[in-house]
Design brief:
Elements: E1 8-9, E2 34-41, E3 44-45, E4 49-52, H1 63-67, E5 70-72, E6 75-79, E7 85-88, H2 90-103, H3 111-124, E8 136-145, E9 158-167, E10 175-180, H4 197-212, E11 217-221, E12 229-232, E13 236-241, E14 244-248, H5 258-269, E15 274-277, H6 281-289, E16 293-300, E17 304-313, E18 316-319, H7 328-340, E19 351-353
Parallel strand pairs: 1-4, 10-11, 10-17, 14-15
Antiparallel strand pairs: 2-3, 2-4, 2-9, 5-8, 6-7, 6-8, 7-19, 8-9, 11-12, 13-14, 13-16, 16-17, 17-18
Bound molecules: 2-OXO-4-methylpentanoic acid.
The site of 2-OXO-4-methylpentanoic acid (COI) has 6 residues, from loops.
């Protein structure tokens, strides 16, 4: 693709913006008026288009449905203090989309289709970007195979799309999580580091079972020993032990979260010790029982920073101290929000104006 191209725009004639209630934004429920569509056919990407949000037609033999060549991303655009709109770290998401694509033997998406396409989409759906504190326009880029062919091989054709939805706070209460020591989210050498649909599908049963026991999310452990922490639900997880920020190092079974990277960067900026390494359930529980674990929280695009209130381990629940206003998770949440809304200097160049 060329560095700039004209995107064909077909505006909606039936906007749904009146359905947007800023006080009641359920994650993923009300999708904005338009979507970006781009097809990969004849071994190349065709020009992207912006069209009204709506259903897509797929063959019943669609190979994404049968064999799972489907990946996605999650990022957010924020209303700025001056009324404009800016996207948080979109190129990081573009790169990770292509890392996932490579793992799933799918074509990479050119930067201009992703970024220029996204900017044009956000210009068109600018009124959908909310401005209440903690709110954002959640952006969901995705790609899936479109061959109508039941043979097991990488598809030759693909659909890339971007849809968006206004969102508020994801979890309204601190979380109850428990260590998962039976089911596995991902194994070394598998596709856990890719944001492919199957990772999420396979997590549904174990997560539902934990939810039936009164937990919100799981603390996934490693596939071979069920000892080392991997992620928590759909988030990366960070612990504060003895004043140090400790988090599982990314690996082939852990997603390289962009919120995770941002939180670790801010901790380093503030001179806080950061350790990215293996973290065992035993270490976490010993520290919690000894009063050395002062905070645990999930980090992710959808959830931003989600404090953990209770950890279940071997059939027993253990409560964490309530975070004070000085708690790292609180301070980093406030600092990120200030950068994202344009109220604090963006020293790392994370924000991209629309
Ligand atoms: C995100 O945080 O964007 C995610 O991908 C989690 C999502 C599955 C809700």
């Amino acid at each position: 693709m060329l560095a700039t191209f004209a995107i064909d725009i077909q505006p909606t004639t039936a906007s749904r913006i009146k359905e947007l209630d800023p006080d009641n934004m359920v994650f993923g429920k009300l999708l904005a008026d338009h979507m970006l569509v781009a097809e990969f056919t004849g071994r190349e990407w065709q020009a992207p288009r912006l069209v009204p949000y709506g259903p897509l037609a797929v063959s019943p033999a669609n190979s994404a449905l049968h064999y799972g060549q489907a990946i996605f991303e999650g990022l957010k655009a924020y209303r700025q203090a001056d009324g404009g709109v800016a996207i948080f770290r979109p190129l990081d998401n573009w790169q990770r989309l292509n890392t996932s694509a490579e793992r799933m033997s799918m074509p990479s998406v050119p930067e201009d289709i992703f970024l220029q396409g996204l900017r044009e989409l956000l210009k068109l759906d600018e009124p959908w970007v909310p401005n209440a504190p903690g709110s954002a326009l959640y952006i969901r880029p995705f790609m899936f195979a479109t061959d109508g062919f039941l043979g097991v091989r990488p598809s030759e054709n693909y659909h890339f799309g971007i849809i968006t939805c206004p969102v508020g706070v994801y979890f309204t209460k601190p979380l109850r999580v428990r260590f998962e020591q039976k089911y596995v989210r991902a194994a070394p050498g598998g596709a856990g580091y890719a944001k492919n649909a199957g990772n999420y599908g396979a997590a549904m049963l174990p997560t539902r079972l934990a939810q039936e026991e009164g937990y919100n999310q799981l603390l996934w452990t490693d596939a071979s020993e069920h000892q080392y922490v991997e992620e928590s639900g759909t988030m990366n997880v960070i612990f504060v032990i003895d004043g140090k920020l400790i988090t599982p190092a990314v690996s082939t079974s852990i997603l390289d979260g962009i919120t995770r990277r941002s939180v670790l960067q801010l901790a380093q900026d503030w001179g806080m010790p950061v350790e990215e390494r293996k973290v065992s359930s035993r270490e976490v529980m010993d520290a919690l029982i000894a009063g050395k674990l002062t905070e645990a929280f999930g980090v992710g695009t959808a959830v931003t920073i989600a404090p953990i209130a209770t950890i279940g381990f071997e059939g027993q629940d253990y409560d964490l101290p309530t975070p004070t206003t000085e708690a790292f998770s609180r301070r980093v949440g406030v600092a990120l929000e200030a950068i994202r809304s344009g109220q604090a200097p963006d020293v790392h160049g994370w924000m991209v104006r629309v």
